[in-house]
Structures are given as C-alpha cells and as structure tokens.
Amino acid sequence: MTYTAWIILTAALVGLSCSLIGVFLILRKMAMMADAISHTVLLGIVVAFMMTRELNGPHMLIGAIIAGLLTALFVQWLNQLNIEQHASIGIVFTTLFAIGVILISTSVGNAHLDVQHALMGEITFIPWNTMTLPIVGQVPEATAILALVLIIVLICIIFFYKEWKITSFDPALAASLGIPVVFLHYLFMSLVSITTVASFDAVGAIMVVAMLITPAASAYLWTDKLSMMLVISALFGVVSAVGGYYIAAWIDTSISASMAFATGIVFLCSFIGSPKHGLLSKLNRPTRVVS
C-alpha cells in the first residue's frame, strides 16, 4: 500500500471504532464523558511512562484504561454527592488533565511526549513505525493496533447488543431484569478508554472527541433504529476520515484537524438535509390548523 493509503486506512479505523462507541455515548447522554476520557487518559499514559521509562508497550494501554476507569469512578462518586453529572465531568476532566500536563512539564524530561502531540497527534508519521505480521507482512504499528481495537469493539457490541440497548434506554428496567448494569457500564467505559488511547498517538485528543461524538450525533438525525444508527455512524466516521484527508491536502493544513472539521460538515449536512429531523424537512411540513 502507498503512504497515503496507510494514512487514510488508519484514520478510517479510528473513525469506525470511535463512531460505533459514540452511538452508545449519545444514547446514554454521556457525550461529555468522551471529551473527559480522551483528555484524562493523558495522565495514565504519563504515569505509565514514569514507571517504565518506555513509550511503547502494553503498560501504556493499561495506564490509559486505568485513567479512563478512574474518570468514570470519580464522576459517579461526585454524582452520588448530588453534584450534577455535567459539573462532575468538568471537575474530574480538568483536574486529571491538569495533573497530566504538570507531570509532562516537570517529570517526563526529553521524551517525545508533549501536550501538543497529545491534543493534535501526528498521523503523517504513522507509516514509518512498522511491525511485521504473519501473512500480511510489514504494516504500521498504529494501524495494526487500531484494527485489533475495532475487532474488540465489534465483538463486544455484537455480544452485548441486547444488554447495552436496554441499559442505554432504560437502566431501571435492565436492573429489574437482572442485567448487570454496573458491570456493563464499566465495561463500556473500558472500551471507551481502549478506543481513545489506541487513537491517541495517531490523531490526538481533538479528533478522538470529534469522531466519538459527531458521527453518532449526525446518525441520530437520520434514524430512530439502533442497528441503523450504528451503520450510519460508522459510515459517517469513514467519510469524515477520508474527506478530511483530502481537505488537508487541498489547503495544506493539519490532517487530524481537517478530519475533525469534516465531521462538522457531515453534521451540518445532516442537520439541514435529514428527511425526518432535518431543518428543511421541518420547514416543509404542513402546518396543522386547529379549529
């Protein structure tokens, strides 16, 4: 494959994984949690590096997952203290992210780990860091990891589809049916953390947030059926990744930022043109006259 093809494939894998997870974030009204976890995983990555002094390895993923779970636990704990969920997310998000930034500035030293890299990523470097896989041969390491994460996400969604569907729409009913709501919640938070950290190095936090929220929000305007929403969200994620790359090539700017911008264009088109919830369809509906 060509250099450009690897970049587009990597971005498409990010779009697929994040957009599928994002559907359940939107349905659970936890969109801001995506923003929080995509930033607080920085703390887990920094702490893992400080303990091992290595930038590559499973310890980085473990540290990020722990940070994501801690974020969910702290938000839940503050929520139980009668602090509103959005306020709880804001408190935990800013505090843990600030600690991560401080540790980078004071304790990381000369390692290639900085705030700008964490926020924006550098997808153009992806094709150079390769690994050898059986049969496939040489592939970029980030692409292989993202492909594995996508497989894990798909398996979890297929295996727990009914349970997550019920817990997303009616957690009280799910609990009364004996479904382990708490376990599924933290399993879902683990998936969000895994997906986020797998995408983190390649595309940065900005694109991760955009891909987690915007394709799913766009798909929500097109359908009320969960299965179709997952398919449409995944399609929008891939379209945004591919379209964003060509926007970046056209105006010579950041690829990750352009892909995030492309998700906004997709949402705007959905907001205007959706046949059921779009602006044009609402304007064209006949006004009911009450006699």
Automatic annotation (TrEMBL):
Keyword Lipid metabolism in record: no
Q: Which domain of life is it from?
A: Bacteria
Q: Where in the cell is it found?
A: Cell membrane
Could you tell me the keywords of this UniProt record?
Cell membrane, Membrane, Transmembrane, Transmembrane helix, Transport
CDD domains from the UniProt entry: TM_ABC_iron-siderophores_like
Q: Where does the chain cross the membrane?
A: 6-27, 34-51, 57-75, 87-108, 142-161, 173-196, 202-222, 229-248, 254-273
Task: Name the Pfam families for this protein.
Answer: ABC-3
Membrane topology classification: Multi-pass membrane protein
Q: Could you give a single Gene Ontology term from the biological process aspect? A: transmembrane transport
Example of a GO cellular component annotation carried by this entry: ATP-binding cassette (ABC) transporter complex
> Record's family?
Belongs to the ABC-3 integral membrane protein family.
> What protein is this chain from?
Metal ABC transporter permease
